[in-house]
Each structure stands twice: as C-alpha cells, then as structure tokens.
Description:
31% of the residues lie in helices and 27% in strands. With 417 residues, the protein is an alpha/beta fold. The site of 5'-O-[hydroxy(phenylacetyl)phosphoryl]adenosine has 21 residues, from helix 6, strand 7, strand 8 and strand 12.
Amino acid sequence: MVYEEKLLESLRQTVERILKIPYYQQKLKQVGIRETGNIQALKDFQRIPLTSKEDLRENYPFGLFAEPMERIVRIHASSGTTGKPTVVGYTQKDIKLWAKIVANSLKRVGITQSDVVQVAYGYGLFTGGMGLHYGCEELGALVIPISGGNTSRQLMLMRDFGTTVLACTPSYALYLAESMEEAGIFRDELKLRIGIFGAEPWTEGMREEIEARLGLRAYDIYGLSEIMGPGVAMECPEGRLHIDEHFYPEVLNESGLPVEEGQSGELVLTSLEKEAFPVLRYRTKDLTTIHYGRCSCGHEGWSMNRVSARVDDMLIIRGVNIFPSQVEEAILSVGGIEPHYLLVVERVGNLDQLEVWVEVNAQTFFDEVRQLEQLQQALQKRIEEIAGISVKVKLVEPKSIPRSEGKAKRVLDKRKM
Length: 417
Ligand code: DLL
C-alpha cells in the first residue's frame, strides 16, 4: 500500500508538470483531468490517454517541452524511418539523474572505477553514446568515447588501452568478434570482462555466441530516447532485467487495456522525475511482460522480460505473425552458419513469400554441394517448426550480408518498396 501511495504521489507530480503543456492540457481535459487532485487512485491515472510517437511528431520540434528553452541544456532525437525525427530535451537536473541511473545500472553488474569502458554506441543525437558516457563518468570508470564504426581502430584501442567493458549493440559486438578473429587477435590478449549490449532485440543464443567469442559476460540494457535513453532497465547478475524506479511501467493488450501481471503485451512507460520532457503513458511498441518483486541482487520493484520484438517488426506472412527473433533462435540452434541473416519478404502473384538469407561460415562454404543442401534443409525445417510457416532458406557466401555498426537491419520488405 505504501508503494501505491508513493507511486500516486510521483504520478501526480508528473501530471502537474505535464499540465503546463497546452497540448497535454487539452488531452487530459477530454478525460476530465484538469488538476492533480483528479488522480486519487491508479484507476484515475489509467484514464489518461496513451502518448505515442505521433503526438511527438505533431509537436515537432519542442512543443512538448515542459520547461522554457533557457533551462534545456541538451536535446537528443531518434532518427525515425519516415519523416521528422522525434526530439527530446533535458535540463541539467535531468542529465544528472540519467547519469546516476546509468551509473547505478553499471555498478549493479560489478563495473567499478577500475574499469576501462569502450563506448562504441554512436555519439550524437542517438542517446546510446552519451548516455553510457555520462553514466561511466558518474561511476568514475575510465571512458573511451570511440563511438560506433571504424572497426580496426576499435580493436587496436581495445588491446592497447586494456578495455575491460565493451558497450555497443549486440550486432556490432558480433561484428567486432568476427573482425578480431580475422585479424588474428585472440580473446586472451584482451582484458574484456563485461559487455553492455542493447538498443535492439537479441536472443539468448546470440548472447551465448557473443560471450564465447569475446570472452566476456554479456548484459542486456534497455531504453528509448522518448523516456530518457539507455538505462530505463538493466539486467542484473541474476539475469533479470530491472526497470529503474524513476519509470512506471504498464503492459497493455491490443485494445489498450492492462494485462494480468506476467502476461505479454506492449510496454507503456511513464517518467516520474524528468523535468524537461515528462511523458505520460508512452507506447513503446515493445513487447514484453513485467512483474513486481524483490530480487536477490537487492533490487525491489518492477522487472521486465527481455524485449523479444517490436510491434512494428512483426511480419505478417500469409496471415501468420513472425518476428525476426524467432528466425534468429532457429539459426543459432543449427551449426555451420553465422548469425548474420536477413528476412526478405516479397509478394509473388498474390502470395507473400518469406526468404531467409543466412550466411554459411567459411569452413562450411567449401563443403560439398550435398552437405550444403542438407544444411539448408535442416535450417528450413527448424525455422518452419519455430515460426509455423513455410519459408525458403537461401545460404549465402560469408560476408555477403551487410554488417551493422549500430542497430542491425534484419528485414527487407519488398512489399513496401
Ligand atoms: O536505443 C536507447 C539505447 C541505447 C538503449 C543504448 C540501450 C543501449 P532509441 O534509438 O530511441 O533508443 O530506440 C529505442 O530500441 O523502443 C526498443 O525497440 C529498442 N531497444 C532498446 N534497447 C533494447 C534492448 C535506444 N535491450 C528502441 N532489447 C526501443 C531490445 C531494445 N530492444
């Protein structure tokens, strides 16, 4: 009960800040909320309309800032595949809070002042680079602000500077591992011990692969610019993804209604202490489940399951829903291939067809045709078992699928071209 009272108080504070913004004032008025006193219980809060990317776009660029521009010290933006980016702002206090949240997350997995953290997330409007950077400095760790890309330089500095922690997307981590092997660098020559990987969905199979090839323990970090950036949730040594206490999570079904605790749906987040860009009930489009409780790592509060997919990434092929992560799971369960893949969707006649391009590894590439055919069939069968639809698998040469230095692109939907 104490928790609920405290939560309601924090929610009311966010509502108070939000009511300074004319756009939200209108939206809240429509459901009868004109002042914080209208929120007496969680069910009142649940009447508040959801916020989506479209609300942000409509108010581009600064229309949803709750503070005058003189108090804003930084903006970030997410690229957005269509049209204008979504822009978010931070006051000095917000930046400090964010740094603390990230620092605490890093501390929880055992990162200390003695660590050397190579931040290979992109620096710039994307929140990954600077979010991790400020968190590391707050913690007192040494940061190498190398940003994404320039892979051979990454490897050189990793060895020469004695990097102990690598922070980047999981797909870039895999690319670094591959480049390391090609350059003849052995993982024992490096001091890597921890990886802070996120910004895109990844599977358990991918984690095992990266851990084995880079010789480190890989942790999942989750976040989105609209809410703050990396650090909204972070995995602990027990393998649970804890949501930071400054964010209030809900999981809703397709009709926008709350699901039972532990059931899957869309994650909706509310910021509790942000000044410049407070958000109420923001639709993340990320699919997950949440639960409340105490973990043996010491965290008490909400935790979530790893985000398996975004609502947007769901492909509907002949009426069946399929996510890239399901294909990744299948690929990683079959040997002889690399976890570099692309889902190519096409409409042939009136029928949607999914072709999965997968790279074979260099060794397998020189196998006999018959062996390659067997591999192709085994993979096809495995994907069909997991995803429940017939697909065509195309084995492609090593290195023929473009590598990513940031978020990987897993789908080529020719129906939309
Ligand atoms: O990706 C923030 C971030 C940077 C998180 C670095 C972690 C590390 P956006 O560019 O706004 O922000 O993209 C947010 O990326 O809604 C998810 O769909 C996806 N995403 C982020 N982290 C994870 C993760 C950053 N750990 C969108 N697992 C989110 C799965 C993730 N998806």
